[in-house]
Every structure is written in structure tokens, then in C-alpha cells.
Amino acid sequence: MPAIISADAAPAQLLPDRAGIGGCALPVTAGAVTGLLPCHALVLTVTGPVTAEVDFSVHRCAPGTLLWIRPGQAVRFEPGDHETRTIVFRPGLFAPAGHPDELPGLAPEDPGGPARRPVRLDDDATFDRLARDTAGPPGESAGDPVVAALLRHQLAALLLRISLLDPGDPPPGHVESRTFERFRRRLEERYPHTRRVEDYAGELGCSVRTLTRASLALTGRTAKQVVDDRVALQAQRLLAATPLSVAEVGRSLGFGEPTNFGRFFHRETGLSPGHFRTRYRDDQPSGIPGQRLPSD
């Protein structure tokens, strides 16, 4: 795998007066990795194919396909002769799932949300209109609330269209799915602080057995495995895309001793933290890019 190099993303507009919505060529320069993308990015392949690595899974995107990259994901695009268009928007822009005035049945921040793999966007008129409007017509007032509302509604329409093409996980329809959905959302908040299933069960007001049964039914993994999977993913992101030392990565995830973190990481990935990191760094000391700061 080519080495990860530090590089800035293509210029993007993520301005409050644009309702937190903007556009750029790619969220990261081709041939480089950005550590923990700070915003959502909807990347449409115009000519290609485009090869993208998102959280260490490689996707080959043919022309007319769209890839939805979430905040916090490690991203890399292979260099090549291709054209893309990208719409970016800040996290937390829409209300949580179930809000009647926002995106019914769709929560953009949900890890089980739609389009976790490239989807074919047969009708890209909605995307193109929004991409053009993010630039704004000449003479437009930057703070015009009508423009902000227009962009927000156009983005909502695009996200709803994407969710129809690839809805992601089915909405909770029985007790186990509702339990697991609550567990997964709580896990996103708490995984740096605890890996104990007992803690999650207590906070959700259920037993460990109930939580494990729900996890097995929805994922085929036990609740403990689901927790460890999430911690291991974050460890990989930090090792590949930030300058944090192995010990600092471990401490950020609740491991007091580097040896304990090393054993955990090897058990989950089959590699030591150092060996994993060498896959994502150049021989030069500057091979690991610095972590990208949030835009807001």
C-alpha cells in the first residue's frame, strides 16, 4: 500500500452562513489520508473509476456512484485520472431520527445509517442542483436565511433519496432491535470510557443477557464483541491517521498500560499496534499526518 502522506483537503465551504453545507473536489487530496474526517462528505464519481479506502475497507466507485463518508472515518483516495463532485455538511445539522420535521426514519449520525457502501445514483439532478447552489449566485447575500433554508431542504431531499436507494439497517421493529439500537447509540458516546458490557446494560436498564441476546440477533456478535469491535476500529483510525504514540492511543481509549492495549489490539486485529501503523506511514518521520481539527 502506498504510504500515507500529510496533505490538506481540497478547499471546502463549511460556513455557518451557508447552513453548514458546502462543496469541494474531494474531502482529501488523492494519494493522502485525512485522520478522522471532521464532516460528512457525499462523493459522487463523475469519471473513473475512483478507488477509496474508508475505515480500512477499499471501495471501487464506478461513474455514477455515490459514497457517503461519515465524520470520524479515516479516508484515503488512490491517485488516478478521475473526476468527482463532493458535498460536505457538518455533523449535527439535522435532528435525531424520529423528529417529524426533519428526516423521517433517517439519522445521518447513526452508525447503522444508509449508504455505508457506494450506491448507484441513477438520477443525480438533486445532487447537481445542490452542488451548484453551494457556490451561490453572484451578488447573493451570504447571510440570506432563504438561501440557507434552500440548501438545507435540498440536502434533506438528497439524503432521503439516498436512504431509499440503500436504507441501511432496518428500523427497530421488535424489542431486540430497539434494545440494540439504544445500545449502539450509547456505545458511540461511551466506548472511550468503558468496555464493560455490565456498564452499558446498567445504563440502559436491562440485563447483560438481554443485551447479548439483542446483539447476537442483529449482528451475530455478542455485546462484548460489539464493544471491542468499536474500540479496535477507533484504535486503527488513531494509529493510521494521527501522530499520537501507541501509549497515547491506548490511554485515549481507556487503557492505563501500553502492554494491555497492545494485547487487546493484537487479539482484535492479529497485528501489534506498531506493525499496523507501519502500513500507514512513510520511512520519513513526517509520514503520519496530523489529526484534522473539527471545522466548527
What does this protein look like?
By secondary structure, the protein is an alpha+beta fold. The protein contains nine helices and nine strands. The chain has helices spanning 125-135, 145-165, 175-190, 197-204, 208-219, 223-241, 246-252, 258-269, 273-278; strands at 21-24, 33-34, 40-47, 50-54, 57-61, 65-69, 75-77, 83-89, 119-120. The model is unreliable at 1-17 and 283-296 (pLDDT under 50).
Number of E-state strands: 9
Shape: globular
Poorly predicted parts:
1-17, 283-296
CATH class of the largest domain: Mainly Beta
Determine the mean pLDDT: 82
Write the layout of secondary structure elements.
Layout: E1 21-24, E2 33-34, E3 40-47, E4 50-54, E5 57-61, E6 65-69, E7 75-77, E8 83-89, E9 119-120, H1 125-135, H2 145-165, H3 175-190, H4 197-204, H5 208-219, H6 223-241, H7 246-252, H8 258-269, H9 273-278
Antiparallel strand pairs: 1-8, 2-7, 3-6, 3-8, 4-5, 4-7, 6-9
Keywords:
four-stranded antiparallel β-sheet, 2 domains, 9 helices, Arc Repressor Mutant, subunit A, Jelly Rolls, single chain, alpha+beta, 9 strands, 296 residues, five-stranded antiparallel β-sheet
Task: Describe what is shown at a glance.
The protein is an alpha+beta fold and 296 residues long.
